[in-house]
Amino acid sequence: MTTDFSFRGVACPKGEADVACWGVSEAKGAFKRMYFKLPHLADDEVRIKVLHAGLCHSDCFKVDQEWGQNVVFPVVPGHEIVAEIDKVGAKVTKFKHGDLVSFGVYRDCCGSCEPCRRGDDQLCSNCPYKLTYDPYLGGYSTYMHVKAGFVYFLPKSIPKERAAPILCAGATVFAPLKRWSKPGIRCGIIGIGGLGHMAIQLASKMGMQVVALSTQPSKEAEAKKFGAHEFVCSKNEEQMKHLCTKEPLDLVINTAFIPDITNYMYAVKAGGCFVEVALPEVDKPIIFNNLDVVGNQKIYTGSNVGSRTEVEATLNFCEKFGVYPMTENYSWAELPKAYKRLHDSAPRYRCVVDVASTFDDL
Ligand SMILES: NC(=O)c1ccc[n+]([C@@H]2O[C@H](COP(=O)([O-])OP(=O)(O)OC[C@H]3O[C@@H](n4cnc5c(N)ncnc54)[C@H](OP(=O)(O)O)[C@@H]3O)[C@@H](O)[C@H]2O)c1
Ligand SMILES: [Zn+2]
Ligand SMILES: [Zn+2]
After folding, report:
1. DSSP label at 247?
2. Of 39, 105, 303, 353, which has the fewest Cβ atoms less than 10 A away?
3. Residue with the nearest Cα to atom 35 of ligand 1?
């Protein structure tokens, strides 16, 4: 029996499949093996063979349906991808079979709406399915069909088994750091996980005075190796008080998905900027002291991954400055184990699954 899922291909028995995946068939469900036939390769698409996939906490929010009830199940997540070009569509000239490439959070944009015209293609307002997965197959798959215009060459010097998290975790913090940074300013990074450990490295290479804020004192030594000049344990009232009153921050990038940011906002200088990249559950409104924000003319803003230009700039910056994700690498068969660690925010600091170590061998 086959099930038809528009856009994602057709579910089928393993023996007839083009692609093997790890996915969930219901909200908060367990990861299971799934097999699909891929649709026809369009002229502007490439078929990529996934080599490595990073596991991002957004995958958990999607699978758990914590950003709204509109998720189309089954879901095959994954949007941090290192791959090889397997096949090119009739009109694709940029890539050829065997090229080492990467692919991230966005798979499409309209190209003509206002955000697209000014280069903010991640903000496209006119494209129904622009995210990599849901309802398409994401990177927890052996193969994918994707538009060639959203595929990036992977710089050769970046170790390919560590590179995948640059495509989401790296780009998501690089874009706002670049947008708001000035050399020498004090920049706080809240939460040292997948996004946070990249943010510390990137902010430090951009010449900022980096303060890492974490709930876990055990992360101090690694935060300093990543380039943090100072470490503040956010559970330590004395340290937080000192930061807020004596040495507040010009810029903050928040990667911790917590709704109540009141105390962290107090650590921003008057006129300073708090950039939210974390995305807590949709039904939990963000809380801060509005008197503090208005009275001290603080900026509260958000940032959504990055445009294709910003993703490319992230890859180039990482190559130039030798900034690589610190990864825990797992085999394809171990994906559920890696996902459980992600769900617990346990990885130091990003799980990457070696998809090409597949036991499906399609
Ligand atoms: N804006 C975007 O475009 C974009 C892109 C990708 C991801 N995201 C979002 O960014 C967030 C982080 O993703 P990630 O993959 O980096 O997650 P992660 O690897 O799990 O790291 C999150 C970190 O947040 C901190 N944290 C967790 N629970 C906390 C709590 N209750 N109180 C204080 N800190 C807490 C922890 O750091 P410490 O142990 O150091 O405290 C943890 O390591 C998620 O919400 C994700 O959906 C947004
Ligand atoms: Zn992500
Ligand atoms: Zn558009």
Report:
1. S
2. 39
3. 256
Cα(215)–Cα(225) distance, integer angstroms: 18
Question: Which atom belonging to ligand 1 lies closest to the Cα atom of 55?
Answer: 15
pLDDT at 3: 45
Residues 115 and 134 in one domain: yes
Q: Give the end of a domain, one of 276, 302, 328.
A: 302
Crossing angle for the helix pair 308-321 and 169-180, nearest 10 degrees?
A: 90
CA 271 to centroid of ligand 2, rounded, Å: 29
Contact 304, 279 (CB under 8 A): no
pLDDT band for position 39 (50/70/90)?
confident
Give residue 353's identity as a one-letter amino acid code.
V
Q: 323-358 burial, b if ≥16 CB within 10 A, otherwise e?
A: bbbbbbebebeebeebbeebeebebebbbbbbbbee
CB 245 within 8 A of CB 223: no
Indicate the number of domains in the chain.
2
What letter represents residue 337's amino acid? Answer: K
Residue at 267: amino acid letter:
A
Range of the domain at 265: 169-302
Q: What is the CATH number of the domain that holds 235?
A: 3.40.50.720
Check: CB of residue 354 under 8 Å from CB of residue 330.
Answer: yes
* CA of 255, nearest ligand number: 1
User: Pick from 283, 344, 306: which is nearest to 202 by CA?
Assistant: 306
Q: Which atom of ligand 1 is nearest to the CA of 56?
A: 15
Residue recorded with tokens 């708090």: 274
pTM of this structure = 0.97
In terms of domains, do 162 and 202 share one? no
- Interval 234-287: pLDDT, tens: 999 999 999 999 999 999 999 999 999 999 999 999 999 999 999 999 999 999
1 within a domain of the structure (yes/no): no
Query: Which residues lie with the beta carbon below 6 Å from any ligand 1 atom?
Result: 56-58, 61, 168-169, 172, 191-196, 214-216, 219, 255-258, 277-279, 303-305, 345
